[in-house]
Amino acid sequence: MFLELHYKSSQLNRDTSVHVLLPEECLGAGESYRTLWLLHGLSGDHTSWMRYSAIERYARERRLAVVMPDGGRSWYTDTVCGANYFSFIATELPELCRRSFHGMSEKREDNVVAGLSMGGYGALKLALSRPEQYGACISLSGSLDITRKGRPCNLAEWQSIFGYDLESPLQLEGSEHDLFALAARNRAEGKPFPQLYLWCGTEDSLIDVNRRFDRHLTALDVPHVFETSEGDHTWKWWDLHIKEALDRI
Length: 249
What we know:
The protein is an alpha/beta fold. It is built from eight helices and eight strands; from the N terminus they run βββααβαβαβααβαβα.
């Protein structure tokens, strides 16, 4: 079942759109189904996964609910300009969906967050910031290091999100936006880690940062799976590897 949801978000303070896939089978007493919170990349929107991948078929085969929000170009962050995209996806949207659609499990092990490119960063940011909410996380071609690689958008846009001057990019290092710091903090505090699966193509410009994050997790002794194979930064590979990632988890 494919639904298009439009509503006024209190966290974003504007109307927004969300695509939702729901299993069509009737639930028995006490039954629930797993949910995949699926994030798009920097140049995409909430329609991208439905348009460019076979996610509807993959979800149907696995009896998954899938929620695909519009994250704009926000880096899934509570921005300094007042659009709280992190809180929207981490808190407001799950509460809305569970009120509106019967059967979505609230159990940690039944919730997976995933994304590509900017969405891979967002998925890991959610999973590492709210490890009690997600049993697994999938990052495909993730743009995982916003503090060292440099900004992927113009300075004015970057400042409207993070409030930092990219002439001094290390201001972001160690902050709540830094995935490397979040992983280290969680390990130091003994917090649980979701099951982590990362993939990046060997012809992708983001392969080096993905390899660096893999080494960082390994040094922290954080269980995870990191795979590379042929592929660049295109939907041909994301469609293939979201299917493989769902099979793996």
